[in-house]
């Protein structure tokens, strides 16, 4: 609608009309050259003082520029309407003169009058639309500035509150025991220290609670490799941040390597997993698999790097010798034969279960609680399964394909998956593989399970930091309820509920050594 007013006369017009046509053409050209009334900078939550100030300055500058652009758009539309008004007046004058002639051409007069009236009406309407659009855009930008200004005020108040002792106790060696947190605190604070994982996501969920605020972060130090670490401003403790040293609640389990590393996991729960062999530096370590007979029926073998997840390191081979050949120097792998008689999805595709767990270590350093989620996902291969097809599309299932709650086997399989993970956590705790802290620690971890046709389950691996989706990004299928429920279990509040989390087991681990207990960095 920007400037396409069709004012071409139907009959030859006087010189004044030609000048008006030229003026309207120039108006259209001016509108085409003006920048659009669209601000590119929008408010986004800032986690640091510098970031917040920079965003506020950008929003203010954008408001200033867009105000000028908007006024220019309106001015051109006003000029266009004035030109149309002059043209309408000239047409009216010409019509009066034509009607006084001896033989007036009434059809031509009416045509010109209608055309001029229509163009004037359109120009006035376009002027009003542009004025309203300009005002709306400026109002939206003012709202963005208002949000940014409110955030800076909140950050300043948070700094003042924490500095005056309104936050949790000191971080680091002193720690923050449960009794020291204080039930009468008005505000609780979270900070994003850019460690990665789900830290910022958990902050966003905690900030939905009315008594949680952002506490800004700052650069802490830079190592020899140029890696920059951040901490809460002033090296203060906060209630939650992804930098464990400064957090009252730790989002990483100490000893998680025993769950992440497939080789370490197999060391203490071999009875729950497919039989596993190890290759290190292109050599078998320990037991060597038997040679596959030339006339043996084909069956897939999997070569997996021990410390990588998401299927990125999985190679499907025809036999153990091929696994050895395809391994690399300076790498450690586990080798597993495909389970017998796998349970297929409806059209014969291979599938596995994404089973979600919440592991919580209490601040006594000894007690562990495992919760399992009653809903999960199936990962389904694109192609029907065949033991002779070694392609990833057939053998490797990675992507969460669909919710599992309508899968007919889920009611029978869920308790078996729950019991399997409970066994893993109980053994890891009793053997001291999971290490206690002097603060609450937690982690949402997914377990990959594959099921046989007889409904037995095999644990394949754990994924710390699994894929999680928020309602804002994926309205149809998301994990907002799971995350909210987990955070309510870890840090309860009056407006929360545990959602579909079930307490699977509470067990006791090995007490930390006294000299090691205070240090949890």
From TrEMBL:
Q: Name one Pfam family in it.
A: TTL
Q: Which Gene3D superfamilies match?
A: ATP-grasp fold, B domain (3.30.470.20)
Its domain of life?
Answer: Eukaryota
Q: Which SUPFAM superfamilies match?
A: Glutathione synthetase ATP-binding domain-like
Q: What is this protein called?
A: Uncharacterized protein
């Amino acid at each position: 609608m920007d400037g396409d007013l069709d004012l071409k006369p139907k009959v030859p017009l006087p010189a004044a009309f030609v000048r008006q046509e030229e003026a309207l053409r120039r108006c259209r050209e001016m509108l085409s050259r003006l920048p659009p009334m669209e601000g590119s900078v929008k408010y986004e939550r800032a986690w640091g003082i510098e970031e917040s100030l920079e965003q506020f300055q950008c929003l203010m500058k954008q408001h200033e520029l867009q105000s000028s652009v908007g006024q220019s758009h309106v001015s051109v539309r006003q000029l266009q309407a004035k030109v149309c008004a002059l043209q309408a007046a000239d047409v009216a004058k010409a019509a009066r003169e034509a009607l006084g002639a001896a033989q007036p051409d009434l059809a031509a007069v009416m045509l010109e009058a209608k055309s001029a009236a229509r163009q004037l009406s359109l120009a006035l309407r376009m002027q009003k639309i542009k004025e309203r659009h300009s005002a709306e855009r400026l109002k939206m930008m003012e709202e963005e500035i208002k949000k940014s200004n409110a955030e800076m005020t909140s950050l300043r108040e948070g700094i003042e509150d924490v500095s005056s002792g309104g936050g949790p106790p000191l971080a680091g060696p002193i720690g923050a025991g449960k009794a020291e947190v204080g039930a009468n605190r008005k505000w609780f604070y979270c900070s994003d220290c850019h460690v990665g994982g789900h830290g910022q996501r958990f902050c966003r969920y905690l900030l939905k609670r009315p008594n949680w605020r952002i506490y800004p972060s700052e650069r802490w130090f830079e190592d020899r490799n140029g890696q920059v670490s951040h901490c809460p401003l002033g090296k203060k403790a906060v209630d939650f941040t992804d930098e464990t040293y400064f957090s009252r609640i730790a989002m990483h389990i100490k000893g998680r390597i025993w769950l992440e590393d497939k080789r370490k996991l197999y060391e203490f729960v071999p009875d729950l997993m497919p039989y596993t062999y190890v290759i290190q530096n292109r050599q078998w370590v320990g037991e060597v698999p038997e040679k596959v007979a030339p006339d043996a029926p084909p069956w897939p073998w999997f070569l997996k790097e021990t410390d990588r997840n998401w299927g990125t390191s999985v190679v499907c081979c025809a036999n153990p010798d091929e696994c050895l050949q395809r391994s690399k120097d300076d790498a450690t792998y586990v080798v597993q034969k495909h389970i017998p008689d796998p349970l297929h999805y409806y059209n014969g595709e291979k599938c596995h279960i994404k089973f979600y767990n919440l592991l919580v270590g209490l601040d006594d350093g000894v007690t562990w609680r495992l919760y399992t989620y009653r809903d999960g996902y199936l990962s389904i291969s694109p192609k029907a399964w065949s033991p002779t097809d070694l392609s990833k599309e057939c053998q490797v299932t990675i992507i969460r394909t669909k919710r599992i709650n309508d899968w007919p086997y889920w009611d029978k399989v869920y308790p078996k998956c729950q019991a399997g993970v409970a066994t893993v956590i109980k053994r890891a705790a009793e053997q001291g593989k999971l290490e206690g802290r002097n603060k609450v620690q937690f982690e949402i971890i997914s377990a990959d399970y594959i099921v046989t046709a007889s409904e037995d389950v095999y644990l394949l691996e754990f994924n710390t930091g699994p894929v999680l989706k928020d309602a804002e990004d994926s309205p149809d299928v998301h994990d907002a309820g799971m995350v909210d429920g987990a955070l309510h279990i870890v840090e309860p509040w009056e407006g929360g509920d545990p959602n579909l989390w079930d307490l699977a087991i509470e067990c006791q681990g090995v007490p930390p050594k006294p000299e090691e207990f205070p240090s949890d960095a």
